[in-house]
């Protein structure tokens, strides 16, 4: 049995919210639990009882080897990168965005406490859902192909410009929410933010984009600015993972292997050549450092590297050196 891939817990919860019980009730109170799927890959199980009819309900999702859940309270992330969801379609994402946004009063000045926090969460979810809908537009296309437009929806709702306008509108409403007094500005934080703003403006000018906002370009252009901003933040440009973490380096290597398997699933010889090349770079790294991967090997391939103590791992710089060597070796194949 193939389990659907949920990139994050947020995406899994949204899928459950959009999948009603046979009686029509969408509610299911469950936090979920990690599981290992029959193929050995990580998954997550959600189970509970419908509050209306009492039916037992269960959802089991495959989860990525490298967790994509965001720990930030300033944004909601359903999935990193530019690959579209395999769990929900563009129409479902846009409908969810509309529902979240419509639940927030147009005059939020009176909101306080928990109501204000809930409104902020809903608008962040609306922004994130529009981003997910936009991922279904093909590279270089201004709109969703006619055959992919959900039944009953206006095709113009899925043009790149309309989606950008909608997202910017939700972001304006989010910024307009009353908030707590801002903390004192850290000069270094201000410097970093100004540098990021200049990078985004230069990127937009370079590609002739009217709006200097992330997401306004093609998929490849958006990947370009994502990589640049990650590099500025001291993160791995390809994955956004922390380069000061050895576990993150191994997680990036595992993600690299997984991406090769997915991208080349229809070309087995090319897939095996590239994965074999990456694994050869990994083994050469072990040989050069004269170390054994025994302390972390099982965790790496089971997707549990994050649970491995730092004391069992090589230094982060050495691990990331291996990751870059593997990527370089695969790129050299063309």
Structure characterization notes:
With 334 residues, the protein is mainly α. It folds into 4 domains: 79 residues, no CATH class; 87 residues, no CATH class; 46 residues, no CATH class; 86 residues, no CATH class. The protein contains 10 helices and 3 strands, in the order αβββααααααααα. The chain has a 3-stranded antiparallel beta sheet with strand order 1-2-3, with no helix packed on it. β2 and β3 form a beta hairpin. α3 packs antiparallel against α4 and α8 packs antiparallel against α10. The longest helix is centred in the middle third of the chain and has 22 residues. The radius of gyration is 22 Å and the shape is globular. The protein starts with 8 loop residues before the first helix and ends with a helix.
Gist?
With 334 residues, the chain is mainly α. It has 10 helices and 3 strands, in the order αβββααααααααα. The chain has helices at residues 9-17, 90-102, 113-134, 160-176, 187-206, 219-232, 246-263, 268-289, 297-302, 316-331, and strands at residues 33-36, 42-49, 56-62.
């Amino acid at each position: 049995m193939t389990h659907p891939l949920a990139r994050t817990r947020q995406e899994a919860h949204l899928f459950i919210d959009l999948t009603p019980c046979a009686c029509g009730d969408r509610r299911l109170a469950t936090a979920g639990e990690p599981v290992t799927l029959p193929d050995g890959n990580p998954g997550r199980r959600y189970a509970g009882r419908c509050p209306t009819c009492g039916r037992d309900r269960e959802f089991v999702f495959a989860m990525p080897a490298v967790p994509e859940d965001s720990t930030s309270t300033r944004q909601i992330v359903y999935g990193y990168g530019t690959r579209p969801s395999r769990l929900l379609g563009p129409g479902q994402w846009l409908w969810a965005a509309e529902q979240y946004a419509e639940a927030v009063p147009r005059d939020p000045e009176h909101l306080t406490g928990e109501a204000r926090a809930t409104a902020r969460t809903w608008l962040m979810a609306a922004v994130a859902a529009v981003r997910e809908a936009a991922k279904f537009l093909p590279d270089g296309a201004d709109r969703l192909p006619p055959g992919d437009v959900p039944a009953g929806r206006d095709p113009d709702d899925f043009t790149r410009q309309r989606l950008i306008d909608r997202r910017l509108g939700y972001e304006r409403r989010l910024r307009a929410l009353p908030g707590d007094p801002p903390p004192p500005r850290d000069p270094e934080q201000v410097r970093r933010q100004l540098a990021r703003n200049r990078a985004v403006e230069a990127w937009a000018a370079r590609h002739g984009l009217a709006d200097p906002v992330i997401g306004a370009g093609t998929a490849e252009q958006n990947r370009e600015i994502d990589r640049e901003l990650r590099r500025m933040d001291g993160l791995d440009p390809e994955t956004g993972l922390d380069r000061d973490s050895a576990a993150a380096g191994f997680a990036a290597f595992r993600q690299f292997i997984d991406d090769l398997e997915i991208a080349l699933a229809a070309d087995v010889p090319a897939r095996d050549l590239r994965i074999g090349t990456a694994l050869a770079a990994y083994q050469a790294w072990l040989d050069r450092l004269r170390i054994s991967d025994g302390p972390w090997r099982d965790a790496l391939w089971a997707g549990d590297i994050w649970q491995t103590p730092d004391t069992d791992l090589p230094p982060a710089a050495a691990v990331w050196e291996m990751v870059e060597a593997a990527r370089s070796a695969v790129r050299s194949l063309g």
